[in-house]
Amino acid sequence: MMPGKGLHRLAYFVSDAWDEWRHSPGVNLLAVGTLVSTLFLAGLVALVLDNVGRHLDEERGNVQVHVYLRDSVDPLAREGLRLELARTPGVAAVETVDRDEALRRYRAWAERSAALVAEIGANPLPASLDVTLVSGPGAERVGDAIVAGLVGRAEVEDARFDRDWLARVEALLSVARLGGGALAVLVFAAVVFVMASVLRLAVHARREEIEIMLLVGATPSFVRGPFLVAGLVQGIVAGGVALFGVEAARRGIAAWLGAEPLALVGLATARPLPAGAAALVSAVGVLVSLSAAFFAVRRSV
Amino acid sequence: MDGARGFGEEPVGRQPASGTSNPMIRVHRLSKLYAGGVTALHEVDLAVERGEFVFLTGPSGAGKTTLLRILLRQEVPSSGQVLVNGRNVAALPAAKVPELRRTIGVVFQDFKLISRKTVLDNVAYVLNVAGLSRSEQRRRAYLALKGVGLHHRAAAYPAVLSGGEQQRVAIARAVVNEPDLLLADEPTGNLDPDLAVEIMRLFREINARGTTVVVATHDRDLIQRMQRRTIVLERGAVVNAARATA
């Protein structure tokens, strides 16, 4: 086909699709509404998974072993232990937290519980060494080895490597991602089916028109063209509206929570959907809409 | 026919080339059986010469519409041969059907206009399908409408037109692409007698410009008035294909 003829065809497909939109807005709005709702929900799920995933990544980069020291340990012995730990492979940094600093941190953490802070008389908190591990797959092994190596040391009262919660949340997130993936496939198929059914209504309403077009010599691809262009545009529009809705919902939640974000909700909606995920949601919208238009029109033409 | 010229303006009649070996339509032992054993056409033999004006008549259920549908490749025959302008319609691959249809103008009893398109766009659609530029489509469509006296209703939608006007739009659409053959299935079935005569006048003008015209109708008065060759079908078979005596 000549490029000029191709452009002429494309221009006709676009104008005919728009013409059809103007004449039957109901069915088309129903199709777009269905797609927007689904993409909005998919966008929200992607937003939550992305934020929780990012938070876990940050936590993973901040894996620490807390070594609590006996009160009897003198500064020299404490520094010796700090240097020993700092030389251990897999350790990124070791910070000394003396008893006063520990109390200050506790007060800052518990400042909303004034009664609890007021009850503290003499400082009951031990000094500690906060050992930050190099993040990565080997961090857990290094942490376990450090804790095991400190058992029975005279300077050490207790050593804790609380990685269990991280492992649990990671496992939960993996399940959520896996489940989300499977759900996405199911939702994709379901939405294609629903959209195709809705669009089939539009095609059915135009069956006489399609018959006329074929009778006067239009090729099936010429008849299908406007339907596919409409599907493409509907997918793009629905994707844009859904993404706008997701971001509006995120900002709305942030404004509603104000300065005291609920931990989980605030965590799940802290950052906007990244560009990659937004592009994926848009692409899925276009793919769903185009597939639905294709299946709907294929039956009649 | 020159589509840039209104066909009511310069009728230049052409005599049917009877007896030539290359007719516009050649049907040989054509049969069409539907599921359930219903026979619509049985061993039909007929020929329509180039430039001829032929009526196809017979009672309801005689097979007129089935024959036209086969000529337009809306249906495939069960057996036999159908040649339209030298093409074997029965054996035509599906991909070639649109090409065949672009050489055939077609007019239906129920007009079959696209309700959401204007009169001009309905007529121009045939040219759009053929790949003509938008300006050329509009120019030729306007002239075709002028030929049927409806250029002043170009911007109207079919729903606001009378039956006679809608049929004239359908005729303009059928001839705008300068077809070799015009098929009309009961084109006056929904019109009153005066309008029927007007539609026939248009067909005669189209024919005079060289287009072969086949009109299926059971309106005997109209057939008698037109004095053209009439092929009579009964129960799926040709019972008379005599040439009319003018």
Please give a handful of descriptors for the protein shown.
heterodimer; A: 301 residues; alpha+beta; 4-stranded antiparallel beta sheet; 11 helices; 8% strand; B: 246 residues; alpha/beta; 6-stranded mixed beta sheet; 10 strands; 30% helix; 24% strand; disordered N terminus
Model description:
The complex is a heterodimer of chains A (301) and B (246). Helix content of chain A is 72%, strand content 8%. Chain A is built from eleven helices and four strands; from the N terminus they run H-H-E-H-E-H-H-E-H-E-H-H-H-H-H. In chain A, strands 2-3-1-4 form a four-stranded antiparallel β-sheet. In chain A, helix 2 runs antiparallel to helix 7. The longest helix of chain A is centred in the middle third of the chain and has 42 residues, at 164-205. The two termini of chain A are 21 Å apart. The radius of gyration of chain B is 17 Å and the shape is globular. By secondary structure, chain B is an alpha/beta fold. In chain B, strands 6-7-8-3-9-10 form a six-stranded mixed β-sheet, sandwiched between helices. Chain B has a four-stranded antiparallel β-sheet with strand order 2-1-4-5, covered by helices on one side. Chain B has helices at residues 64-71, 97-101, 119-129, 134-147, 163-175, 193-208, 220-226; strands at 25-34, 38-48, 53-57, 79-84, 87-88, 104-108, 181-185, 212-216, 229-234, 237-240. Chain B is built from seven helices and ten strands. Chain A binds chain B through residues 5, 8-9, 11-12, 19-20, 23, 208-209, 211-219, 222, and chain B through 72, 74, 98-102, 106, 112-117, 125-126, 128-131, 133-134, 173, 177.
